[in-house]
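Reading a protein record of the kind used here takes only a little practice. The record below shows the convention in full:
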Amino acid sequence: MTKKQVKKTRRQRLTPARKKKFLDHLREHGLVIIAAKHASPGSPLGCQATFYNERDRDPAFAQAWEDALNEADDELLRQLKRRGIDGIQEDVYGSLGSGQPTGVVGEKTVYSDKMADLYARVLSARVRQGLANKIELTGEIRNTSIGIEKLTPKQQELLTQLLADADDQAE
């Protein structure tokens, strides 16, 4: 088989199963290179170009690709909110009494300021984009609650500062 025939054969092997595997991993990770490597384990770069070409060629695949990226983004936002705003439960260890070993004596909710900061940045970008879309489509802005009351005062202050900075940059 010539090189040209090998290349042609490889291009034709983009099966529905490979597409599904690619989309499943894209949905999970949100990264094309990781999804391509999982769907093409024999290729060092995961045949990314093959998937990009298929996206350009097939509108249904392109829509599935976009949907997968949106789901990955939504999951990332959920995790940022869970860790930064809602907090995660961690066991508290301490003495169980005289002569007893150390063990779990309670639970505490732990918040990540870094995750809250990232959540606020993503949220503010989405809000700005949403507001831009509303202005463009309807000519008006509607005030919609985004759950800011769930933020700590420090997180509210950070979000307020981020939005003010974005307004300054827009001007």
